Records
---
Amino acid sequence: MSNSPKFVIDGLKASVENKEILKGINLEINGGEVHAIMGPNGTGKSTLASAIMGHPKYEVTEGKAILNGDDLLEMEVDERARAGVFLAMQYPSEITGVTNADFLRSAMNAKREEGDEISLIKFIRKMEGKMGELEINPEFMHRYLNEGFSGGEKKRNEILQMAMLDPSIVILDEIDSGLDIDALKIVADGVNNMRNEERGFLIITHYQRLLNYITPDFVHVMMQGKIVKSGGPELAERLENEGYDWIKEELGIEDETVGQEEEDFKMPMNTVAPEFK
Amino acid sequence: MTTQIVLPIDQNEVRENSQSKNEPEWLSNLRLEALTLAGQLEYPKLEKTNLNRWSIESYGKYKSTAPITSIADLPEAYQEALQDQKDNLLIQRNSNVVFKSLSDDLAKKGVIFTDLETAAKEHPELVQPYFMQAVKKEENKLTAIHTALWSGGVFLYVPKNVEVEIPLQVLFLSEDDSSIFSPHVLIVADTNSSVTYVDHVTSEGSSNELVHNSIVEVFVKSGAKVQFSTLHNLNDSITDLSYRRAVVENDGRIEWIIGEMNDGNCMSDTSTVLKGNGSTSDAKIVCIGLNEQKLNITTNATHFGKNSDSDMITRAVMNDNATAIINGVTKIEHGAKNANGEQTEKVLMLSPTARGDANPMLLIDEDEVTAGHAASVGQVDQNQIYYLMSRGISKETAERLIIYGFLAPVVSEIPIKQVSDQLQALIEGKLER
Ligand SMILES: Nc1ncnc2c1ncn2[C@@H]1O[C@H](COP(=O)(O)OP(=O)(O)O)[C@@H](O)[C@H]1O
Ligand SMILES: [Mg+2]
């Protein structure tokens, strides 16, 4: 299938502020597949999402991320997006003075050739339609981007953007946090409606709840900046019932987080007088 | 008398100019008194800005430019903006007014809209009691110099109960760097009248240093409403020194809309004296600084009246090595019970070498009041850029969206469409050089 994406993450390592957080991630996502990454807080899930998208704070030190044969890591953030990657962020930014509609239209036109911009009327119709499906108040079209939105409103707005931009690889980072059960169902419907052979999903969550509504094909558990266990939907169910402790026991992990351990004290070789400010 | 006047204009010249224009004696005398003061007074002391280091001495000479009969005689660039404004339009080129028109309808209602030189002769009873009364010649060297050598200018009088629906429009155009370009605008809105005044202060092709030392005075009588809007885009060899001041009586209202889009240094001081009970004011100021530009922008609201209300917003975008000192002063005098004053100053810096300073000041001598201020100075947020880029938007477009978004809360609130469009175009011109 020519339109079915193939996304390969191979040995990806990444650091923040010189702390290594991702310690070698391997993952392959194909069109039509839904992968879930689960794991307690602080295990590196958002870092993986940010490294794939290209957040400037996250430095990839090793490994590859190849989408349909193209090296994402060589691209700027906007090029990655135009190549088909979409990240619904855990903490979307608020931007004063830029309306939701203006922003989305700029984003849609960024993917199109100059001279082939979407007409205003077509755009409005499409946006109104998608907002209706996601039960977003039509007023939000002309509200400033995420400004003053509640947590749940921001999440729905992320899904709206996904629906409008029609990406081929979708990463949802904690899209379920801050959503009540009704909103969760709406968001899950939004995702399920977009499941097809031309799109692959990576759903990051630390609750199993969302996966009751979006059934994953593959489930991966992340700890200490690595995928420590993979399986099918039954793995998510077991995590729901038993929590993460059995995995930690099985693998001999005491602290599943990454990047938070005290730095080992090393005797400095060249001592320099401390600076007092 | 051995006054050390650094002006390129002397007492004789001031006298001769005044005589050759047949100015009334009170005005001639005022000019000469002011000239003496100019030799004695100091330049104003501005917050964190030393005016003495700016080029503020080149005023040029009074030179008369020939009148024109229609806007078709203007350089093409200026015709378009004035297309729809055949009436109620006044044009000053360099030192003098070259075109003026007022609709019969407004003239019949008693509206006066003419150059200030003519008004001083024909309507002294309306001009003399107000001219240089909101701003005083004794304030500092700049106001004294202005009083001595202003030329051209505008006088707008709206009689009692007259509501002027269409904006009155003025173009101030400097095309010759050796001509005085220091107009004075005097607006008197009588009881329960209302009017919208729009001007554009701009320049064409000059390259030597020149000072634009202008003063605007607005008198808003009881129950009257004045919308005053001005856009400045003078070139980088012109130093813009502008005072604007309104005195607002009971239940009167002034709205200021100001776009400081110059390429040169600019001191801009916009003040409102809320004299009457229930008087209100609103000021929106947008500025952009590039290259080595220095801006010192002040908004001031002084409350005397009970239940008076003021709101002031300034937004500045600074790039390159430009510096902006943004001052907001809300002063509530003793007795101004239930007054309310709000102000916000925000500076967005686009380069690490741009400088911005926001200085909000609340000076309150009365207990029963409410007042608030907010100020911020910051760089473009990299997380916002990342967020926009993650949707496929290029870095340049992302920055543009954020910058325009920063200005939007002011620009989108401008009630006169023509002004907000023109301001938007000037903003784009400056940011997308
Ligand atoms: N922006 C950041 N600045 C500093 N440290 C960070 C940043 N992002 C992540 N980290 C580090 O990476 C660790 C993992 O964070 P994160 O990827 O957000 O985990 P998760 O999404 O699994 O909760 C954090 O504990 C922290 O030490
Ligand atoms: Mg996270």
Note: The longest helix of chain A spans residues 151-165.
---
Amino acid sequence: MTNWTADQPIVRLRDVHKSYGQVEVLRGISMDVMKGEVICIIGPSGSGKSTLIRCINALNDIQAGSIQVEGQEVHDPRLDKLALRRKVGMVFQQYNLFPHKTALQNVMMAPVKVLKEKPAEVETRARALLKKVRLEGKENHYPGELSGGQQQRVAIARSLAMRPDVMLFDEVTAALDPETVKEVLVTIKDLAAEGMTCILVTHEMGFAREVADHIYFTDRGVIVEHGPPAEFFTQAKDARTRDFLDQVL
Amino acid sequence: MLTDMQDFFRELAATSPHWNFIWLYDPVQMDRVLGGLWMTIKLSLACLVFSVVIGVVGAWAQEAKSRLLRSAVQGYVQFFRNTPPLIQLLFFYFALGQFTPSYSPDGWLEVPIISNVGWAIIALSFFAGAFNIEIFRAGIEAVPHSTREAAESLGMTRLQAYTNVVLPLTLRISLPALSANLINLVKTTNQAYAIAVPELLYQSVSIWNDFPSAQNPTMLLMMVCYLGLVGLLSLGMGQWERKLRIPGYGV
Ligand SMILES: Nc1ncnc2c1ncn2[C@@H]1O[C@H](COP(=O)(O)OP(=O)(O)OP(=O)(O)O)[C@@H](O)[C@H]1O
Ligand SMILES: [Mg+2]
């Protein structure tokens, strides 16, 4: 259906508009994300960051513009949303694990139920993933028995088990206490180093500076400014960006 | 030993005319009691299963996209919650029973394909099912939307998210209310008496119609039987609740 190749943007947004009722939350967003890139989206609260990221895997719909993932139009009514979501993993601020399943079962559920893979094979992969996010020995713990940071790493492993091409992270460290933030960020950093395409909404400026290939600053539904971290943090041109950076840095 | 006891009760019946425990020494009456108890148990089990199925499916349908389906379910729930179960039972048996076809196993007798036991199961299941739908719906609403969203973001269909995530959590939330309703259901099965289903109440009444001296003991027996049945059910539900408890998760 598409003739997307890896030298084209894996995620491509053009003039995306999104409203909740009368309120326009996204007012013309465009961005290109290449395969293997790490993109950080920063901006003040309420500027539409979560909305933007949720539009990419069709959890929210859009009113105008275009979002393509691997050349496929996300908001084409004929698109198989479920197939899209298998390619695009998402990690939430509140982890949203399945509380009635152990860590291992959380990771295994989607590949077994959605991809219909053999449980034995999935289990091997799930154990390897939990090891990768440094949760060896916690396989049989229920979410309620894990710390926030550990739960968030289970959530990351759960998304990775679907072998996505792109990972979306929406303020995944915002609900954690400062000591556990680091363990989650290290996990994401590992992932980025392996070449996973990542789109992150984050308030961790140090992390963004270190890991991101490109930073986007949003305010009131538009991208005010964007660029590689070195430029972005030192030579911001727009007054709004400078104000924001003054506050958070 | 057994005959000693039976002799004792035979004697008691002779000396105190209101305390004839006839079903303890008369095998015919004992069979009636046991048959009635067994019918009550079968009726309860069948209605338990069907009403829970109705509850699960109905709660799912109440979330459907189709407005028609949603209002049909809502209409059903309102109807069965707001009319007396005894009247529902009579309505099913006498009004709808007229229109169901019958067959003739021996060429002589006409037998309706749905017996009075069948109608009792249908009517009581629909009655308890209407409450179960509301119970499960409240449970579904208590499952955080974000948990379901996580399931959907993993590529699950609505049905997969419902059966693998929403329903197991709903069940845990709904279990106390479900227990109460199912206990109520067991107690309501004796309304099948009105359409001559030979369950415990029906058999007990027949016994004391035949032997008025057995009325007090038979009523006592009935109370004990219901206490026992409901006790077993509560015990079972409690066990289930404990089994479903998730470490570190407080509902
Ligand atoms: N479901 C919704 N219905 C109506 N309005 C919404 C909804 N979700 C978000 N909004 C509004 O859209 C705007 C953008 O919200 P969004 O969650 O995208 O912001 P954000 O940049 O992620 O903020 P934060 O940093 O606080 O998470 C806000 O003004 C919010 O009130
Ligand atoms: Mg947000």
Note: Chain A has a mean pLDDT of 92.
---
Amino acid sequence: METSVSQPINRVDGPLKVTGRALYTAEHPVPNVAHAVLIMSTIPKGRAASMDTSAAGKSPGVLRVFTPFNAPKLPPSPSGGSPTSRKLNLLQDDQILYSNQPIGLVLADTFENATRGAELVHIRYAPQPFNVVLDKDLNSAFTPEKAGAGGDPANSSRGDHQAGVAAAAAYSEHLYTTPIQTHNPMEPHATIAVWEGSKLTLYDATQGVFSDRQRVAQVLGIPPEDVRVISPYIGGGFGSKGPTWSHVVLAAVAARELNRPVKLVLTREQMFGAIGFRGRTHQTVGLGSSSQGNLTAIRHDTIDQTSSFDQFVEPCGLQARMLYPSPNAHTTHKLVRLDLGTPSFMRAPGECPGNYALECAMDELSYSLKLDPLALRLKNYAEEDPEKKRPWSSKSLRECYRAGAERFGWSKRNPAVRATPEGHYLVGQGMATACYPARRSESNAIATLRPDGTALVEAGTQDLGTGTYTIMTQIAADAIGLAPNQVTFRLGDTDFPKTPVSGGSQTAASTGSAVKMAGQALREKLIQLAVTDPASPLHGLGAGDVTIDGGNFVSAANPRKKESLAALMARHGQNEVSATADAKPGDEQDRYSMYAFGAQFAEVRVDMDLGEIQVSRMVGAFAAGRILNTKTARSQLMGGMVWGIGMALQENTMVDPRRGRVVNANLAEYHVPVNRDVPAIEVILVHEDDPYVSAVGAKGIGEIGNTGSAAAIVNAIYHATGKRVRDLPVTLDRLI
Amino acid sequence: MKPFTYLQATDVPSALRAISSSPDARFIGGGTNLVDLMKYGVEQPAHLIDIGKLPLANIEPLPGGGVRIGALARNSDIANHLLIREKAPLLAEAIVAGASPQLRNAATAGGNLMQRTRCYYFYDTGFTQCNKRIPGSGCAARDGLNRIHAILGTSDKCIATNPSDMSVALAAIGATVQVQGNSGPRSIPFADFHRLPGETPQIDTNLNKEELITAIDVPGFPFALNYCYLKVRDRRSYAFALVSVAAMIDVRAGKIHDVRFALGGVAPKPWRVPAAEQQVIGQEPGAEAYGNAADVALKGARTFPHNAFKLELARRSIIRALTTAAVKGERNGNVG
Ligand SMILES: Cc1cc2nc3c(=O)[nH]c(=O)nc-3n(C[C@H](O)[C@H](O)[C@H](O)COP(=O)(O)OP(=O)(O)OC[C@H]3O[C@@H](n4cnc5c(N)ncnc54)[C@H](O)[C@@H]3O)c2cc1C
Ligand code: SF4
């Protein structure tokens, strides 16, 4: 019986968090811990010709200084290329490949002493020529093997582009660009490494305890079983804590050398470069359509950046392949090598910037056809995946458009551009489609009934602050037949059953399915015990005739026939009953195309003299299969929409082209929205049943919220002002 | 951060003695700017003299209708003080336009006046060129990312802006800074407090290193209630001004009787041009007169590759701020 799932229950970890009792990585009390502080390069390319550590070595409290000239040599490890096994900077050589690269590590008794020690290391550089500007080097772009981690091909071609253009009443192509964006989770990356003999325990702010363990073990050349990773609470990650980065391994190496636990916390400034970021994208989108608005050609060509030493692709063109049923659709992805760190996953990698460009292009097309932007989307509604020619496992986008438009009052919008002044302001409305793939990976879980009749459910997984604890508790409660307060869920530990990385919005579907199956298996085991126990009032009933509800076995035929789980446990003298589950995706992934969809609407007010832009209203309607908790889901989606405000108007990692350094590597100058930038946001959860997508029926909701929101805002700015800005962020100087 | 000694000063004479004892001694007020700069290695004092407990936090009326703000009054306390709300609401509005509530709770009046530029290259010691940080090293901003930089009062040596909002209001109002040195007190008119960079961009103000700001005197204004502080910025709160305008206007019998305005975000110091104000006295209030005033105030502006927009933005901001102040005046019955 599903009584808890989808209810808007409060976060089960909320009280711990607001009272400061939830321990984040750097807060774990570890006796005798030494503090490590990284030394970062200040040039983008060359060598560290020498590093004078004499003053640092003598500075109070300093225990050790590691540089490329004395750092322990690690075994050669298969390195890089894959998104979770990034090429790391582990002081193995004197090469400098980007500014703000780790090139040394100081260990001291206190954080302050380590910081001071790091300042005292004098570095002599042998600089080399470099380039950090994507647009300067577009000719060197090369085609990667794949477009992103999903394994999609880098290029795609459906139909005949020239024919599609020839058939079009109108065809236009525009260049859209998005700047480098930096994740900036509130909690900085942090690692505490503790060795006991050959066994390593890592407290690590990571989105994947198991992938972290695997990578650290691989780089250190030790068996993964010797590494335990613990990560009970994470203060945001947005992808930046997905891969294992250099500081994690450096902390482990330093702790081994020192024979003492080591804590390493990055400063905010150090979070700009060495732990990934979203690279700059350069996207050319061409759309052709009949005069009635039926798309005849789509072209989406992306050039973005990777580092000189590793590879990451921001797959911007994937949505152009599947969102609209044009008979002709062509996409390409290319990379330019820059002397900056390696870009990485950032919330909706590919979909977020790609959808921005595609949905702005759709908006431009709607105006050139004099068609309502929403009507244009409805005209081009894909009833099946046009690229893979497969049915959708479910798609409720039409209902998202309808519900969102109705709540927003879209029909009342004046279609004319720059036609709605209000005092000093020009008011405008825009919309965009949102879309994100429903992913799922193999995941495990264990459910255990304790002697008191309550359950302990465990899975390795992670909670980035999104609500994993809460939804897993709800899923387990329903699966076993308990109330949520009778279930304790634990996560963030490689001692628990194996789970995938929390990325790609897959945790709910993957680990949620495992938790559900483990809970159901436990329930069946318990019912079996009850019906075969002569002392139970349920004795002799068929297993199918008994349910568990609110902690009691209940006869389906006669609800008065019941017994508490605790009573059975007491009689059985059993300490605990456990059941595990291994939940794997099946061939449904090959039979169906699976996506969550949504519709985003935004209203802006632009000061006609001063250019200041205020987002005054946002409505997002999303259909993502079963919603497991309407409160945490709403927050997630709303957070994604807020992200869109930052992306459209503010976020911009600025790199000085002459020195290759980020100039705004702090939260005062790297702008993200503050409360005053965020209007009332309405989130509509559109009901959707999807029998194929996962055992819990859920698609992911972690990322779809920031697809389409930036486009809706930029489209609203055009509607308000008549100015089409295609390069993000849209700052006020672009509008005056 | 370089190790430093710490002294809690108990009275003004002991604070002055301590600051004079070493060239590397610094006062610390709320610490919201100084500590950041120390963490970045931009400031490296050997001795910190905490003036936070000095009895200089009062806000009290001055004879003649003005208000004296103690140098250690917290920014929040100033903005919320009834006397300020009544006598200098422009100042209150400017203060709350700055930083965040948490920062304003910690920041002091004296510290706010002394806060240093937010030029990226000044803050990041990874850049070797910055005349303000390392005299003679060059200016990385001139050919660099200079969207936030100054268009007025710059020199070849430095094009940084003064980031304070509070100071823009104080410049418009024409405040006086009271300071105390070992040889006694002196008063510095606000217009003379901050300096232009010229050949010595490393020196921000005319306060001697061994002097302590003790108070800021704000004169009473007959038209103090006809005011506007306009701050144009990249996000709606918690961002420094691209352009700001502190304005007050007195309109009588359909003519501009008196006007005051100063600009922030465009110059190395709060930018007030008395000639621009004089220019429009006697004219009819309105965009035309305000535009004339703006043209005088912005005369000699020199823009850089990324900040050319500031010139037009400043002009429009002046017009908007004076218009808003005048509307407020109308509501007040134009009697201040
Ligand atoms: C993230 C961030 C955003 C901000 N945004 C804004 C903004 O939008 N607008 C704005 O105006 N400001 C802003 N600020 C700056 C803030 O207003 C200043 O940091 C603050 O006013 C400084 O006051 P304080 O008392 O903390 O100074 P401190 O940091 O204690 O001192 C600053 C300097 O003043 C000197 N000093 C202090 N008191 C005296 C005295 N009585 N006599 C002589 N010298 C003295 C110190 O020696 C030091 O050199 C921001 C700051 C931060 C960190
Ligand atoms: S503008 Fe001034 S503060 Fe900025 S780099 Fe140039 S000299 Fe330094």
Note: Residues B 117, 119, 121-122, 130-132, 139-141, 158-160, 201 surround iron/sulfur cluster (ligand 2) (CB under 6 Å).
